[in-house]
Amino acid sequence: MLRASGIPWDLRKVDRYESYDEFEWEIQWQKQGDSLARYLVRLSEMTESIKIIQQALEGLPGGPYENLESRGFDKKRNPEWNDFEYRFISKNLPYFLNYRNKNFT
């Protein structure tokens, strides 16, 4: 609401939060102070977020990524987990979580 009311203030710029000062981005703000201004601020924040992500991706070192700690884990069903099933699967890729409850079959 503050940025939609004509005050270009952002904690990431003021306190140099995390690594935001390493990227080129502008504080998005509107001066009208109504719900349309808040909506426009949110839309322009999404555009600025994409710019920050693109700059961060350009700064990543190149080369292939290989997970040298490839391992698998499969927990057997246990009634204390209330029919939840979880698995950690990895084979030269980052880990991901496969979550399903009993209604997702």
From TrEMBL:
InterPro entries according to UniProt: NADH_Q_OxRdtase_suD, NDH1_su_D/H, NiFe-Hase_large
Mitochondrion keyword on record: no
Signal peptide boundaries: none
Alphabetical list of Pfam families matching this protein: Complex1_49kDa
Keywords carried by this UniProt record: NAD, Translocase
Gene Ontology cellular component annotations, sorted alphabetically: chloroplast thylakoid membrane
Keyword Translocase: yes
Domain annotation NADH-quinone oxidoreductase subunit D: ranges: 1-71
Transmembrane segments annotated in the record for this chain: none
Cross-referenced PANTHER family: NADH DEHYDROGENASE [UBIQUINONE] IRON-SULFUR PROTEIN 2, MITOCHONDRIAL (PTHR11993:SF10), NADH-UBIQUINONE OXIDOREDUCTASE 49 KDA SUBUNIT (PTHR11993)
Protein family according to the UniProt entry: Belongs to the complex I 49 kDa subunit family.
Protein name: NADH-quinone oxidoreductase subunit D domain-containing protein
Upper taxonomic lineage: Eukaryota, Viridiplantae, Streptophyta, Embryophyta, Tracheophyta
